[in-house]
Amino acid sequence: MQLSIFKREKKQINNLRLLNNVPAVLYAKGIQNENIYLKKDELKKTFATIKPGELPTTIFTLKSEKETFKAVVKDISYFVTTYEVQHIDFMKLDEKLKISINVPVRSIGMAESKGVKLGGNFRQVMRSIKVKCLPKDLPKEFVIDVSQMDVGELKRLGDISMPKGVDHVNKNMQEVIISISKR
Questions:
Q1: 13, 56, 88, 139: which could form a disulfide with 24 (CB 3.0–4.6 Å)?
Q2: What pTM did the predictor assign?
């Protein structure tokens, strides 16, 4: 996913939006934050290709006049009325430094689940799991198959096996991710 970025002055935000641009800030460890902006049309086109829920783990290639580098979206705000992107914060990645990031959890097999077929109530308690890893090891998502779960069964944080190089940030491995309970 490549996006072009441009330098901006802090006071330009409203004028940039009028010209169909999206203001942003670039953060990086050890350097001062940089005010930037992106072309709204390019951003919308790129975001349209991202699967729902995968924005936090999508690594973007940001290209400025001077350099090209990798970054992830650290925060995003939307206009309440239009739900269009209002502002984005990017975090510049260093391939040698670990990052902490929320990786989405996706459940599959709910229609086939024993517990759901018996009238159990499926509940996904955690929508993401915070992990720490190098950018190259960042998983897109964690997929949990619930097709074999019965009424009263749980999937806990400790039940999720982490890929090589990926560590849990949350140390409570008993925290519930998914449950199928009696109605």
A1: 88
A2: 0.82
